[in-house]
Design brief:
Blueprint lengths: L3 H42 L2 E5 L12 E5 L2 E5 L5 E5 L10 E2 L3 E3 L6 E3 L4 E3 L8 E7 L4 E5 L1
Antiparallel strand pairs: 1-10, 2-3, 3-4, 4-9, 5-6, 6-7, 7-8, 9-10
The structure holds FE2/S2 (inorganic) cluster.
């Protein structure tokens, strides 16, 4: 003789097990997706840009500077030395302005020296800097952003 109460109980137990296993499996898939997306994001933000210095008259001599990409400045320090910085203020992300000697943020007054080091708050972190590589053979500069 069938006992409908036990069958229903077994069915409910089985359903909960299936839901639990499914939830764990979906969570694992979701984590894998998140990791893949984070990895893609990292690759998107790691790039390099090579510029021909002859295209930038302001970078022909030491002390010159030019914006070479969105919010990216290059300053020529000497014949073969360059500084590249992101112009995004580290306080609340306004774009800082360069006057040939230092950077100042128009939003709340943070200041940075030519190397991007904070000299006056409220910003607490230096400007993001990028490694550069000068190639004198073809007069190019590669910026690793
Ligand atoms: S955003 Fe630059 S000082 Fe606040």
């Amino acid at each position: 003789m069938d006992k409908p109460g036990l069958n229903r109980r077994d069915f409910i137990k089985s359903s909960f097990k299936t839901i639990a296993i499914g939830t764990v499996a979906l969570s694992a898939l979701d984590i894998t997706g998140l990791i893949a997306r984070a990895s893609d994001k990292f690759e998107e933000t790691t790039s390099e840009k090579t510029i021909n210095l002859s295209d930038y008259p302001d970078l022909q001599s030491a002390g010159g500077y030019a914006i070479v990409a969105k919010r990216v400045i290059v300053i020529r320090v000497s014949q073969s030395k360059f500084i590249s910085l992101n112009l995004t203020c580290t306080h609340k992300h306004c774009e800082v302005e360069y006057d040939g000697e230092s950077f100042e943020c128009p939003c709340h007054g943070s200041q940075y020296d030519k190397n991007g080091k904070v000299t006056q708050g409220p910003a607490e972190h230096n400007l993001k800097s990028y490694k550069t590589q000068y190639n004198s053979d073809d007069n190019t500069l590669t910026i690793f952003m």
